[in-house]
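Incident log, structure service

09:12 report received: a user says their structure output differs between two submissions of the same chain.
09:20 pulled the input from the user's history:
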Amino acid sequence: MSVRVLHTADLHLGASMVQFGEFADQRRDDFAATFERIVDRAIEGQADILAIAGDLFDRNAAPQRVIERVRRGCERLEAAGVVCVLVPGTHDGVDASDAIYRTINLPGAIVLMDPRCESPVPLTVRDQRINLYGLAARPGTENPLSSMARRDLPGLHLGLLHATLVRAPQWQVPTRDVPVTAEQLADLGLDYVALGHLHRQQTVEHEGRLVAAYCGSPEGKDFTENGPRAFLWVELSAGGARIQSENCQTRQLAAVEVEQSDVESLDQAVDAAVTACGEASICRVTLRGSPPLELDLAGLRQRLEARLDYLELIDDTLSISTRELERLGAERTVRGAFVQRMAQRLESAADDQQRELLTLATRLALVEFKRGDQT
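09:34 re-ran on a clean worker, output below:
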């Protein structure tokens, strides 16, 4: 008989999100909405356990409204017969006397918050015994990981751990981040270890067996967490675990670079940026290359802001391409003569600062030439 587990971690509820400026309030609400969606899926998908492997909260002093949303979620899980099991992380740790898990009550939830797993917590779901292993890392606790070794008990053995997977011996990981290797996880002998702390989804295998997995963060906290975000469905049995990923984010992030050298109109520039962002609605768009002089960068920003929920636009273009200068300089016009003169001055510029000023002056002047042609 198998047990169905929904594995998530690193929800970081109550984070400030100041990096999103005026959009910060919306992002905080997005994170709470994603938590509620995970609760929905645990109930709809008939999970036996919702396992949260640390950093449910971004800080111990979480806003009361966030705590209330989590409490309501736990009440819904309890009413549906889904057991919520969690461990504290590095952001919502239990070192302090006023740590959040010491001050709030989450209905029906099992919080594994001791510094060592002195004894697994027994749980029975659908007549199946499950032994729960977990701990909350604290400074000064000697070799806490060894306390999670499998006990000689009947049933399934499920671990939750907020830890850093060490893949190379030279890595220096602080003890508060609980450094652990694949071999150490395998030696615990558990049927599955639900990991949190690393925000990218990845599996941990040892000698061909799935030992543990990181579910990744279910919502992108910044532009290092782009693309779809997910949780894991885990089918846990005596033969081990099988996992399946399911996307769950409220809004997707993307950091893209968009080449501008080949665009010929504002419409093309907008289409190129939107295509690069794909399904993401929160985007950091970096413009590269040499756009045509006629391209209205302010207009591009305005058009993209109307299409996206949030935009960071970085103009990293070259102001004027050599090809463009050569084309304009070949004209038998006042503009052509001006371009030829400025090209000579650019070629003989004393340093990068002077070259940058000359380039800016040339571009501004050419924009004015263009306006004159249109009047």
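09:41 both user submissions now match this output. Likely a transient worker issue. Closing.
09:42 reviewer note: The longest strand covers residues 230-237. The chain has nine helices and 17 strands.
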